[in-house]
Amino acid sequence: MSLRSAMDRLLGRSTPSSSATAPSGGGRAAAVSHLQEFVGTRVGVEAYVEPPNAQTPATVLLVATDGEWTRRRVPDERTGFDVARSLGVPVYNVRFTGYPQRMRDWNSAQRAERRRGSGRS
């Protein structure tokens, strides 16, 4: 799938001619821009597609080599895979792979840093 068609699906456009009926896309366009920026400014980014659950819709999670991550909503899992592929990064189904250890390590380091920062008054 091309980058254009994947982004059209993420932005809610089923066909280029239907763009007049698509939502304004301000938030979705910002999400696409954010994902592209993340991939362009980090090393070794991989994507993990997360299935929807009772609280959240499907999401695509991008994780860099150092464990830094970002997550954005997608309309469905298929779109998540398409968007990740269009960004040119490896993509995995988190149901089967789980989350990478480097992401958990990065989260722990961020929590520790916040605790140290809040202790400086």
UniProtKB/TrEMBL annotation:
Residues 1-11 have a biased composition (Basic and acidic residues). Residues 1-28 are annotated as: Disordered. It comes from the Bacteria. Residues 12-23 have a biased composition (Low complexity). This is Oxidoreductase. It comes from Isoptericola halotolerans. The lineage of its organism: Bacteria, Bacillati, Actinomycetota, Actinomycetes, Micrococcales.
